[in-house]
Amino acid sequence: MIVKGLASKRHPLLAHIIPSRRCNLACTYCNEFDDVSNPVPTEEMFQRIDRLGAMGTAIVTISGGEPLLHPDLDAIIARIRKNGMMAGLITNGYLLIADRIQRLNRAGLEYLQISIDNVMPDDVSKKSLKVHDKKLQFLAEYADFHININSVLGGGIHNPEDALTVGRRAMELGFTSTVGIIHDGDGQLRPLSAREREVFLAMKSFEKKHFSRINYFQEAIANGRPSEWKCRAGSRYLYVCEDGLVHYCSQQRGYPAKPLEHYSVDDIRREYITKKSCAPMCTISCVHQISYFDFFRGEQTIESAPLDDTGSNHLVTIKSAEA
Across the strands, what pairs with 14? Predict the structure, then answer.
């Protein structure tokens, strides 16, 4: 993937794809779910995955909503692998039992992430270590794929020290552990308190050498400072919603909002050199990580307009004279 990414800038490195917006939980900080949507028809998912394969995408991560609610998730994972792409899954973990994990093995899953927000469930999140510990034991025993447990800070989490407990338990079971900073509805920074920053620094010491640890921007975020970087959303990173539209990311849905089937190399080139107005205070780790591939090249000569007064996520690019 690294060699392919360095050799050409004309293809996505990572795509997030949504097979279902529905979720079986309702965490108060999350704006990426509902409790009514039907799963995307399997044939439509296959068409989108085949399109991503034809575009030269390296990794496809399945997210939601809760992707395990899709009845043909295993076939979707297998389709990703058939296209020669790496397959990842982000789940709340509630539906993981031994048989389900073994089915994911057979489908060819390579990477799974669960976010655990606290030790005991509360009014903010039910994704607690108490509820998930048995699921984690199942994963340790049966999973053939890599497992990362992500704990969180900010966004109304009552006990920051819970992140340390979650991280230690993840490592006891042989998993990797990361910490995320909960963003607002536009994917922007909510500065950490002094107490939260202490926990954040302690969590960083847990990190091992793995791609998900490439989170240098978090140092600035934790201290309330903007991060200077070149966001490649819409180019190296694609977010494909349940309607099959390409967006910048989960928190900036609304632009380009172009059907994946019509997304072209011209779109990738345009977004590669578009400077996103939301980038300095962005906390979306996956976009940062993928954008690191091109930090040394590709000056951004197109300015995007800021969010409007209503807080709309619909961004409009304004081409500069140079572009």
Answer: 59, 237
Count of CB atoms within 10 A of residue 249's CB? 21
Residue 55: which residues within 8 A CB-CB, separation 6 or more?
A: 11, 12, 263
| Segment 282-292 mean pLDDT | 88
What's the pLDDT at 310? 39
For residue 180, name the pLDDT band (cuts at 50, 70, 90): confident
List, for residues 99-115, the tens digit of each pLDDT value.
Answer: 999 999 999 999 999 99
pLDDT, averaged across the chain: 86
Q: Are 249 and 233 in contact (CB under 8 A)?
A: yes
Neighbour count for residue 261 (Cβ, 10 Å): 11
What is the Rg, in whole angstroms, of the alpha carbon atoms belonging to the chain?
19
Label the pairing between strands 176-181 and 237-240.
Answer: unpaired
Place of tokens 């089937």: 261
Query: What does the pLDDT average to over 254-270?
Result: 96
Whole-angstrom distance, CA of residue 250 vs CA of residue 257: 12
Pairing relation of β-strands 245-247 and 237-240? antiparallel
User: Strand 245-247 to strand 256-259: parallel, antiparallel, or no bridges (unpaired)?
Assistant: antiparallel
- pLDDT at residue number 49: 98
**What percent of the chain shows pLDDT beyond 90?**
58
**Whether 238 contacts 256, CB under 8 Å:** no
- Tell me the β-bridge partners of 317: 304
Q: How far apart are CA 53 and CA 82, in angstroms?
A: 9
Secondary structure letter of residue 7 according to DSSP: H
What is the per-residue pLDDT for 145? 98
Angle formed by the axes of helices 129-142 and 98-107, nearest 10°: 50
